[in-house]
User: Which sequence fits this backbone?
DNA sequence: CTACTCACTGCACACGTTAACAATCGCCAC
DNA sequence: GTGGCGATTGTTAACGTGTGCAGTGAGTAG
C-alpha cells in the first residue's frame, strides 16, 4: 500500500511507470484502456494508479491534445436570478458532457468584458457562451479573431451572430398583452429596459402589435423605462403614478421590473390587480411567491442554458446536423393573480 | 501587417521568434518585460506579438509553473440567489487578483460532489471554495488527499475545517428574535431547514436562547421545517396554520423560506404583519421588494465571497499573516414592514 | 530452419512555455 | 595583449501527457 498523501507534487504517469517497471507510455495507454496493453499489466498499472491517488493532469493533456474540454461563460452578473437559472442549465449539461465551465461576470462594462474574453482566450477554452450581453458589438471582431465557436443566449444586441438561442420576445409580449386585452384593459402601460436594446425593442413591438391589432391606442403617459432591476422598476412605476390618467394594467420588460413596480404600487396603497394589473416576463422562481403571484411569460431558462451548451458541444465535435443558427424558444403565458379585469 | 485570423492554430512564441529572428526564449522574456532583453528588440517583439494577435497559452504556462491561477467553486446550485451573490463576490475578487474561476453545482448529491472535486483535481486548480455545503463530511478525506487549500463559506456541516468564513448564525437569530420580543410577541414560531444542519442548529439555538433569556416559552405547535426553498417554506407554514393556537410571529431560517411562508399567509388571507409577523435571514434583493418588505438579518453575501477569495489567495501566496482560521461576519437586523406589534 | 505475423512494449518527439546555464560580444583596466 | 565584466542572446532541459514508429519476443506457417 502506497502512501499517497505525503508527496507535495502530484504523482505522474512516470512515477507509476517506475513502480510498475514499465515505460510511461504503457502507463498512459493502460489508463486510457487502450487495447494495445496486456490485460494483466494493465490491471496492475490501474491498481497502482488508484492506490497512489493518481489524477491525470488535464493541463498536460490539454497541451498535447489542443482541446481543454473547457468552456467560458460570460454573464452580466451571476447575481441576477435569470442568469443563475441559465448558468445552472449550462453547467448541468456541461458536466454531463465532460466539460468544465469558467464563469466570468462582465458587469456590462466593455473594458471588463474585453479582459474576460482575453482571459478565456489565454485559457484556451474550447468555446464560449455569452448570455444577455448588452455590449455585444465588441464581440464581433473578437469572435473571428479567436475563431472558436461562440453561442449567444438572449443576446440583447442587434447584429447577427452565427449561433444563438433566444426567447421569442415578440410572441411572448404579444401573448401577455392579448391576455390583458382579453380581460378588457384598454389603457395599458409598458415599463421597458433602456439597456435591453434589441430584446426590449422586440418585446415593445410585440406589445404595440397586439394593441394595434385590436385597435387599442398606446398611452404615452404610461410608458416608462427602467434597467431591468427591481429598483428601477419601482422608480419607473412611481414616475407613471405621478401622471394622469393612470393605466389599468402594466406590462413589464421582466419579472424583476414587475416586482419592483408592484412594490411601488403597494407602497402607494394601490391594490393589485383590483386597481392595476401587472404582468412580467421570465417567470423567475420569485414570481410565483410574490403577492399576488405574478402573471408572467415563462422562459425555460435552464432548458435554454442546456440547449446552448448542447449546440456548443455539437459545434465542437463537428456535428452541425440538427443545429440551426438561431433557435427560438417559445414563451408560455402563466396566468396568476396579478391580473384581472379592470373595474368599470 | 500580419494576417492573424487565417491560421487555424494559435500563434506561439516560436512563430514570433521566427519572424523576429531571435530565439523563443528572448521572445518569452520580452513579453514578460524582463530587463534582460534589449529595449529595441523587446519593442519589436511586442509589436509583432500584438499584430499577430498572440495570446500566451495559460495551459503551457501552467504546466511548467505548476500554478494554474485557477480556483474551483462548488455551490449546491447557482440558481439559488444566495449563492449567486456569494459567487458574484468571489468572481469579482478573483478577477482582480488574476484568477479564473471554475464553477460547479453539486446539487447536494454526494456522488456529483465527488465527481466535481475530482474534476477540479485534474484541472489542477490552485484552491477551492465550497459554499453552503450540506455533504461536507465527504470533503474531509478528499481535502488532505489533494493538499491544496480549501476555504469554506457558511459550511452547514459539523466538523472543523481549517479555513472558513461564515455568518454568526447564533447572534443573528438572537437579534431577530429579540426584535420580535421587543415588539411584544410571546408566541413565536420557527421554520427551519431540515438539511441546514449546523447552520440551522445555530440559528435555532440563537432563537431559543433569546426566548429563554426573556422567560418566553417555546411553542412546539409553531415549529416546523422546510428545506430552505420558497416551496417548502410555504408548505411548512401551511402545516403550522392547521394547528392552534396560531403564533403571532414566525422567524424563518432564510428569506426564501420566509417568502414562501408569506405567500402561504397571503393565500389564506392572513394579513402581515397585523395578524402574523414574519422575519427572514439573508436579505436577498427580493426581500426588500416583497410585500410587505421583509424584516430580515442581512448577510454581507458578496463581501463574504470576496473575503473567502482573499483568504484563499493569501494562502496561495503563503501570506498567512492576518488570516484567522475561522472568520465570522456579523449579521445586521434590517427592520422593514413585515413585523409589527401583535394586536391584543 | 527461416521468415513472417501478432501481441505487446519502449523510444523519442511533440505540445508551448519558463528558466538555468552557456555563449557571444564589446569594452575597460591592467 | 589578456583577462574580466556586463549586457544581451541562444541552448537546452524540464513540466506531464499522447502517439507514431521501431523493437522484441513468441508463435506459426512454409
Assistant:
Amino acid at each position: 500500500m502506497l502512501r499517497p498523501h505525503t508527496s507535495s507534487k502530484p504523482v505522474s504517469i512516470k512515477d507509476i511507470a517506475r513502480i510498475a517497471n514499465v515505460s510511461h507510455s504503457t502507463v498512459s495507454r493502460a489508463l486510457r484502456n487502450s487495447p494495445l496493453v496486456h490485460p494483466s499489466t494493465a490491471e496492475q498499472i490501474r491498481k497502482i494508479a488508484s492506490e497512489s491517488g493518481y489524477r491525470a493532469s488535464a493541463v498536460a493533456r490539454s497541451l498535447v491534445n489542443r482541446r481543454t474540454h473547457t468552456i467560458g461563460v460570460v454573464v452580466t452578473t451571476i447575481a441576477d436570478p435569470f442568469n443563475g437559472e441559465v448558468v445552472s442549465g449550462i453547467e448541468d449539461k456541461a458536466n454531463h458532457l465532460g466539460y468544465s465551465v469558467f464563469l466570468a461576470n462582465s458587469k456590462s462594462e466593455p473594458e471588463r468584458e474585453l479582459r474576460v474574453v482575453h482571459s478565456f482566450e489565454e485559457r484556451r477554452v474550447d468555446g464560449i457562451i455569452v448570455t444577455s450581453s448588452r455590449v455585444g458589438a465588441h464581440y464581433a471582431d473578437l469572435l473571428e479573431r479567436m475563431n472558436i465557436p461562440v453561442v449567444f443566449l438572449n443576446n440583447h444586441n442587434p447584429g447577427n451572430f452565427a449561433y444563438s438561442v433566444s426567447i421569442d420576445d415578440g410572441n411572448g409580449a404579444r401573448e401577455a398583452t392579448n391576455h390583458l386585452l382579453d380581460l378588457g384593459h384598454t389603457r395599458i402601460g409598458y415599463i421597458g429596459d433602456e439597456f435591453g436594446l434589441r430584446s426590449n425593442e422586440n418585446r415593445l413591438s410585440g406589445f404595440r402589435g397586439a394593441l394595434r391589432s385590436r385597435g387599442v391606442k398606446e398611452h404615452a403617459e404610461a410608458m416608462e423605462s427602467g434597467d431591468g432591476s427591481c429598483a428601477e422598476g419601482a422608480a419607473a412605476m412611481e414616475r407613471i403614478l405621478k401622471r394622469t390618467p393612470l393605466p389599468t394594467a402594466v406590462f413589464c420588460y421582466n419579472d424583476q421590473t414587475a416586482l419592483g413596480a408592484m412594490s411601488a404600487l403597494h407602497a402607494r396603497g394601490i391594490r393589485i390587480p383590483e386597481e392595476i394589473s401587472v404582468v412580467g416576463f421570465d417567470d423567475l422562481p420569485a414570481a410565483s411567491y410574490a403577492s399576488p403571484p405574478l402573471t408572467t411569460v415563462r422562459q425555460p431558462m435552464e432548458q435554454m442554458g442546456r440547449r446552448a451548451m448542447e449546440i456548443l458541444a455539437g459545434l465542437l465535435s463537428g456535428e452541425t446536423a440538427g443545429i440551426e443558427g438561431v433557435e427560438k424558444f417559445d414563451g408560455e403565458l402563466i396566468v396568476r393573480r396579478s391580473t384581472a379585469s379592470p373595474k368599470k
Notes: Residues 22-26, 29, 36-38, 41, 60, 62-66 of chain B lie near DNA strand D (CB under 10 Å from a C1'). Confidence is low (pLDDT under 50) at residues 1-7 of chain B.
